[in-house]
Every structure is written in C-alpha cells, then in structure tokens.
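Recall that a protein's primary structure is simply its ordered list of amino acids. Everything else, from secondary elements to tertiary packing, is in principle encoded there. The following example makes that idea concrete.
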Amino acid sequence: DVIAFSLFFISTILTTFSLHEIEMKVASSLSTLNYVFTFLISLLFLKESITAKKLIGFSFIITGILIFNH
C-alpha cells in the first residue's frame, strides 16, 4: 500500500509541474491516453479479454483525442 501511494503521489506532483510547461490541450490529451495505456497493458501483462464494450470505449477515446487535437 505504501508503494502504491508513493507512486500516486509522485505522479500527481510530476503532473502538476508538467502543466506549467505544456499547453493545456496537450496535457488533456496525454491525460486521456492513460486509459489507452491501461487497456493495452492489461491485454499484454494481465491477459485480459477483449470485449465489445472495451473496444467501443477504446475507439471513443482515440476518436475524441483525434477530434480534440484538430
């Protein structure tokens, strides 16, 4: 539990500092990509199954990022 909290705390601090250096548009896109990375890592390392709901959600996230950045 201590390790997980420490990683979360460090992540929060780094995110706060990075928001001062990059545009908000880029920051929100990078933040949204966390869901994509979580999906991909769960497939690779945890051998999670791919369901229609997950693919639809993944597609919405990618589409939203693409629309938002253009």
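Residues 24-44 form the longest helix (21 residues). The mean pLDDT is 86.
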